[in-house]
Amino acid sequence: MPRYALRVEYHGAPFSGWQRQKDQPSVQGAIEDALRRLEPRAHAIAAAGRTDAGVHALGQVAHCDMDKAWDPFRLSEALNYHLKPAPVAITGCAQVSDTWHARFSATNRQYLFRLLTRRPPATLEKGLVWQVSQKLDVAAMREGASYLLGKHDFTTFRSTICQAKSPIKTLDRLDVEEIMGPSGPEVHFHVQARSFLHNQVRSFVGTLERVGAGSWSPEEVKAALEATDRAACGPVCPPQGLYLARVGYDEDPFAASES
To answer: How far apart are CA 24 and CA 44, in angstroms?
Structure first.
């Protein structure tokens, strides 16, 4: 059975999350339904990350096994046709070896979080950003973020329902950037690690927003981390500003088709 890597973009609002769920719309379910239209049988796809309800993706990666050999471009076009009108698009497709795995072959995951800082309610960006009404101290947020880099026990920033075997992770990147977005000033958080705990990024952002608002000092982020206690975490921010931006592999499966 030929295996294909799929790069997937989606708007998370209509879905219960990535993972297939009984009687609930999911991104995985939408893609598997589209695959069923192409090859009428049960399909089970795997993804690099299981995003939560309301979380978006610019570069989720999944893989599927097909009965026949498809031209990757034609497979992506056929899937996009059958995915309509769901807000899901296959933006890349490549044939890979049968040992390649979207999750287990990945070397890193990169997330983007968008925080809009303006008083008028968001209209065009509604559902795509987390909005706060006050200007934030980005320099203080960067200082707070610096304490989170590296290898740590991230129990404080881990959901109580997290199923990971260990709270110890290595955070490779947590950049805080101020930009002018299409609807006003935004703070972007660029976060990268090999893997993440459940709600880890949203816990980071919610805590750092408190630093930017002046409710926490940057040093309190360090104290919260060292507490290894979920109760020491700041508020967990809502999901709508979070995007799975990119998944890294030793060899990019889509590189040849896009060169």
So the answer is: 17
Q: Do domains 3-104 and 107-245 have the same CATH topology?
A: yes
Q: For residue 74, give the H/E element and its range.
A: helix 72-83
Domain extents for the chain?
Answer: 3-104, 107-245
Residues annotated as catalytic are 52
CATH of domain 3-104: 3.30.70.580
Residues of each annotated binding site for substrate = 111
Nearest-angstrom CA–CA distance, 12 and 57: 8
pTM for the whole structure: 0.96
8 Å CB contact between 16 and 39: no
The span from the CA of 31 to the CA of 20, in Å, is 10
Residues of the chain predicted below pLDDT 50: none
Residue spans of beta strands (DSSP E) within the chain = 3-10, 46-47, 56-65, 88-96, 106-117, 130-132, 150-153, 168-181, 184-193, 242-249
Residue 239: count other Cβ atoms within 10 Å of its Cβ.
Answer: 20
Q: What residue numbers does the annotated binding site cover?
A: 111
CA distances to 15, 97, 157, 173, 254 from 251, rounded to whole Å, are: 30, 12, 31, 21, 9
At residue 28, the pLDDT reads 98
Q: What is the CATH number of domain 107-245?
A: 3.30.70.660
Alpha-carbon distance of 247 to 211, in angstroms, equals 29
Judge contact between 157 and 204, C-beta under 8 A: yes
Helix (H, G, I), strand (E, B) or coil at 106: strand
Which region holds residue 54: left if phi is over 0, alpha if psi is between -120 and 50, else beta? left
